[in-house]
Amino acid sequence: MEPQVKDRPERSRYEILAGDHGTETAGFAEYFLSEGEIAFIHTETDPRFAGRGLGGLLARGALDDARARGLRVLPYCPFIRGWVGKHPEYADVVPETYRARFGL
């Protein structure tokens, strides 16, 4: 089963589900949601799933969902910030006035 990114608003995080049956939480990106903004504060992947590109899939899925919802992204998390820096097609989700602050 292909990995899937799911928003878990009750836990304030996106999770990437993987494993044989696609039911294991392989990683997560915690966020704080407020007034049209989503601040990513911490991202973590389970070491058992290392080297599979799941962190990038998680970042892409979370940012795609934020974009679809019209949310402004504040990438306080170094992983999310770094991922956006490597994928300039996602820079538009970060408000222009904040890009320099985040080095984007």
TrEMBL record:
Ranges for domain N-acetyltransferase: 1-104, 6-95
One Pfam family per UniProt: Acetyltransf_CG
Protein origin, superkingdom: Bacteria
Uppermost EC category: transferase
InterPro entries tied to this protein: Acyl_CoA_acyltransferase (IPR016181), Gcn5-rel_NAT (IPR045057), GNAT_dom (IPR000182), GNAT_YJDJ (IPR031165)
GO molecular function, one term: acyltransferase activity
Keyword Transmembrane helix tagged: no
E.C. number: 2.3.1.-
Signal peptide as annotated in the record: none
Keyword annotations of the record: Acyltransferase, Transferase
Gene3D superfamilies attached to this UniProt entry: 3.40.630.30
Entry annotated with the keyword Membrane: no
Protein name: GNAT family N-acetyltransferase
Species this protein is from: Streptomyces lateritius
